[in-house]
Design a protein that fits this description.
Elements (H helix, E strand, L loop, with lengths): L2 H12 L7 E4 L6 E3 L2 E4 L6 H7 L4 H7 L13 E4 L2 E3 L7 E4 L4 E8 L2 E8 L2 E2 L8 E10 L3 E2 L2 H6 L6 E2 L10 E5 L5 E3 L10 E3 L3 E2 L2 H7 L8 E5 L3 E6 L2 E6 L10 H16 L1 E5 L1 H9 L6 E8 L3
Parallel strand pairs: 6-17, 9-15, 14-16
Antiparallel strand pairs: 1-8, 2-5, 3-4, 6-7, 7-8, 10-13, 10-17, 11-12, 13-14, 18-19, 19-21, 20-21
Length: 301
Amino acid sequence: MNFLRVFLLCNLLFLGPSWALERFYWSPHEMVVGKLKWHVVSEGETLLDIARWYNLGYNQIVLANPDVDPWIPPVGKKVLIPSQYVLPEIKNSLVVNLAEMRLYFFRKEGGRNIVYTAPIGVGAEGKLTELGVYSIVRKKKNPTWYVPKSIREEDPTLPPVVPPGPENPLGKYALYLSRGAYAIHGTNKPWGIGRRVSHGCIRMYPEDIEALYPLVPLGTPVFIIYQPYKLGIKGDKVFLQAFPDFEKKISQAWEEVLRLVRKLELESGQKIRLYWMKAKDILKKPNGVPSLVGETRERTR
């Protein structure tokens, strides 16, 4: 490897991610934020290393690069970095999209609409967070984990209480929700981000929860949703971002897209021309990458 490649690899492996909590401006005509990028694999990298560097979850980078071994990607291989996002249907306060395994935080800054976003780890099969509206009722730095009885029954080796420290699965920051024992928190196992690994809590990379923690006040509403298909406008173009419906909650994917089209038309005041063949192809093989599937037109009276 030449000097530049060695320097970049050292930065990737030892200096941590390039940023935390991506931040974007958005509007009713700019619902697609970020941009797609490419990364050339260096020696010793895995897709998990690359995903964390670009603030992506495991699910996102694997879906976008199905032909690449996530553990031993070929050196010199160009991998797609799907760091472009169609905003979810709800654009208010804190939104957790379980199907996408991504969190969005909407707020005003200087009179402008700003959204922060980060990947998350979600509940394992049968343990997904219950959908609905919650609120942040407590915030804790260096939290103590009081292990629920149900989890100790699964793993009797666990102690009743885990104090703050490197062995604590809550990480260094926790935002507690108003119902159940759910929380949005850090993790001591960052490679679980973008996977179904928890007992229902929402896990974040340590650097992401550290950045989010001071931004979110007590009482902030939290919308837990399940939206595998998202449709958004960027300029005069319409994009579809589709993820696998792993919970099989959407019985008719095409009907769901048509519903989103009608809603976008109502919200934007524009007519949408959908490239229906392209949209249907995406629904057959969802890869989490926003794709052009239509255009907007001014309504004629």
